[in-house]
Amino acid sequence: MTLDELRNLDLDINRGGEWPAPVKALVMLAIFAAACGLGWYLDTSDLLDGLAQEQQKEQQLRDEFRSRQRVVANLDAYRAQIGELETMLGDMLRQLPTRTEMPNLLEDISNQGRANGLVFTLFKPLDELPREFYAAKPIQIKAQATYHQFGAFVSSIAALPRIVTLEAVSLSAQPMKDFNRDSPEPLNIEATLQTYRYLDEDTEAAPKPAGKRK
């Protein structure tokens, strides 16, 4: 087919049957390509997006599998760590006095203070503060002693078999008549000691409010 024939070709679609065979072939090829492109856009692109999502899920599952595989490989070590933590927890719970042991602990703290030279003007156990499995027992104290005497007292209560912490300490230097002038100047001490009681199964539950009578 010559160039002149192409120029003089009537491209009216209604007369397509009269087109030369090469033109018909080109038109059919163009239609086929357009159909394929439209089909890919409507169907294949969605499938490719779905494939990408599935590949991403596969990678996530692989990562999760590797993570769980590491956990399983270290399971014996984790169990050993849990056993050690349970032992440590048991040791700490044994340092928490029960309700019947609490008065003796308070007396031990007071005796340690006097033994180290503290002169108490206030030794007041406050109400318990319940926690999840234990109750905190604050003890408000006011005393006079030298700095070294107070340090020795702190060391002595830290050495007790029960857990006792020292909080909110306030020290002020004020001479007292009862002390010898040649001795170190005493301090006025205000602090809160805190010990803890284990809430075991023998702890009495709080009474439930009685229902109203009709």
Explain what this protein looks like in three dimensions.
- With 214 residues, this protein is α+β, with helices and mostly antiparallel strands.
- The protein has two domains: 20-96; 101-198, Alpha-Beta Plaits (2-Layer Sandwich).
- Helix content is 49%, strand content 20%.
- It has five helices and five strands; from the N terminus they run ααααβββαββ.
- The chain has helices spanning 3-7, 21-73, 75-94, 102-115, 147-158; strands spanning 119-125, 129-130, 134-145, 164-173, 187-198.
- Strands 1, 2, 3, 4 and 5 form a five-stranded antiparallel sheet that branches.
- α4 (102-115) packs antiparallel against α5.
- The model is unreliable at 201-214 (pLDDT under 50).
Could you outline the blueprint of secondary structure elements for this entry?
Blueprint: H1 3-7, H2 21-73, H3 75-94, H4 102-115, E1 119-125, E2 129-130, E3 134-145, H5 147-158, E4 164-173, E5 187-198
Antiparallel strand pairs: 1-3, 2-3, 3-5, 4-5
Helix pairs in contact: 4-5
List low-confidence stretches.
201-214
- Element-level helix/strand string: HHHHEEEHEE
Number of domains: 2
Number of helices: 5
The overall average pLDDT, rounded, is 77
Helix content: 40-55%
End-to-end Cα distance, whole Å, is 111 Å
Q: What structural class do you assign from the helix and strand content?
A: alpha+beta
Percentage beta strand: 15-25%
- CATH homologous superfamily designation of the largest domain: Ribosomal protein S6/Translation elongation factor EF1B
CATH topology of the largest domain: Alpha-Beta Plaits
Protein name: Type IV pilus assembly protein PilO
Keywords: Membrane, Transmembrane, Transmembrane helix
Organism: Plasticicumulans acidivorans
Pfam families: PilO (PF04350)
